Amino acid sequence: MTSKHDSASRRAGPRPGPFEPLALPLKDVHRLPSSAPPGVVFDCVRRLGGEVGWHGTDGLWQFRGAIDRLMGGVGMRRGRSDPVDLLPGDAIDFWRVQAVEPGSRLLLRAEMKNPGIAWMEILVSPRGEGSELTLTVYFQPTPFWGRLYYASSYPAHWLVFQKMARDIVRAAERAGRRP
Q: pTM, whole model, 2 decimals?
């Protein structure tokens, strides 16, 4: 008998080359402190997408998913196969899990249609009595259209990722106060 984590369907999709952040020319970093311990913050990170959503940015992700569907992409229709556990190869909406280091790191690769390759890395590290969340989006643009896309969408992306990082921290701090 195989578990849902052994299913080949969870690992379907393109196999990109290795993630090399220094080789990716464009990045957007959001770093926020949290009074919650790292394990609580990472618990909020590993539940992203699916029914939990994207921490206050769901409407914008749904809009981006609709654009993706119009362009022939997967859109937001995939959800998650498991609401809590993540393994490399799992689909989360239009992202694909590339790496998970329990308690500290989640690396996602975008499978939406866009003129380049996008990655989102979320790191959680200890900081004093609490932790620090670092959400970084990397983008490898195609020469012309990718740079135009990045430049024109940067303000919206900055707001989305800043809000998402802030709301992850807030959710973790609320969860950390519960008995």
A: 0.84
